[in-house]
Amino acid sequence: MSFFSVIDNKFFHPFCCQNRELYFECINQLIEKSKEIPVLYEMDARNTLILYLQNCKYSIETENIGEEVGAGRTPQENASAILRYFRACGWITPQEIGRSGDNIASVSAYCRKLIDAINKIFNEDANGAITNHIFSMHEILRSSFGKDSARAVRPYLNILVPLIENECDLKNDLLILKDSIREIMRAVMKMADANSFGQFLIKDELLNRFFNDYFFIKKSGLIPSYIADIDRMLRKLRRSELYDRMIQEYMKIENADELRAREKISRQFDELDSFVNLEYEQEMSYIDRKINTYYNLYSTRMMMVLSNNTNLEHELNRLLLFLKNLNGEEREAVLKRLAESHRVMSVGYIGRKSFERRRKANPNRKSAGLAPDELSQEEKQRLTDELLTETPDRYSMNHVEKHFDQVLAGRKKISVEECGVRTRDDATMIAAGMIYSGTVGFPYEVEFKEGMIETEAARISNLTIKRKEQ
Known about the structure:
Layout: H1 3-6, H2 20-36, H3 42-54, E1 63-64, E2 68-69, H4 75-89, H5 109-122, H6 129-144, H7 155-189, H8 194-203, H9 205-219, H10 222-239, H11 241-254, H12 258-306, H13 312-324, H14 328-341, H15 352-355, H16 377-390, H17 397-408, E3 413-415, H18 416-419, H19 424-436, E4 444-454, E5 459-467
Antiparallel strand pairs: 1-2, 3-5, 4-5
């Protein structure tokens, strides 16, 4: 179906007349008003336009649009004429009486989409757009593999189509980045004084937006890992059952045969794979080279501006070549004349350390080292015995076994609540029992249950201590 057969012939007329700025602002006012109320009636639309026209900053040119619109008419008359003009152009739906008895003045779907697209292209802040598209692609792929994922119900419309859209938007934003570098270079070439360079660095919003987004991509460690994850999940998606379901869904939507559907889906996956693995890196490498070129151009241009458009490096090279071709006496005479034309002053600073007297070290100072001393063999043996044998381990396996023998008192098992954990030592004994449970030679084992038990000494897992069967 042809594009012009869908819309009215007068659909784009408001953009081509004298009051185009006024009409664009008026339709924006009606769209914003329609977001506040359920149904936009003609009375509400007229009052919105009257209020805007009374505070309008644009001059209204006299224009014949079937109904005269001009500065000589009242805001009420202009508002009514604009509404009739919008309805004739297809920006407002045809007349329809609503429940209140007034005509409905809803903005048409095509007009709403057109105005929204224009605002996104020219007015929306593009800062962070590239990273947002990358994050969106990653989230779409990750959610598609989730359990009971809603995207998996219609994998073609809810997974593949959004991926393709984000990929196209990402390509466009990378092109905008490259165009931004060109605009910066053109602006640098037009600068003729140092003040222009300062204003360019401080106030240029294009420069700030460009480098903000660019350096986030380059310096943040998130983006390379996200790109790698996107590549991995795309390969996984192509091998999963969702791929065949995409083909079946495309066949139903486009009424196509399986061969055509499989070719279409495969081509779209190849496009995604090519962009993620090849085109993205190429575009970023191109931008890196352009950034280096921009820095060199900026440095050279600033040097020329600060030197009154004189290339000092070139002039210095000519001087050195001139001196090279002179004999010894002439070269010495030229160097003396050059030395007389330049005055070099040496400025130094004397600090307190320059004249501070160094303090001598005290020669009579005693050494602070430890006196060497050796232990006898008997003393070493005594200390070893105290450490290993004479100091008993309170929570050894034997002590824990004796403790549980006393607690169980002949019973086969006992719970934590029945143990009576009143002190920290009791709680530590139970913890030691958990550790020794299952150890060869330890006659008790621990069986865990759900929940926790609050005791006087500590909060312990709900468990049962029972004697192992021989």
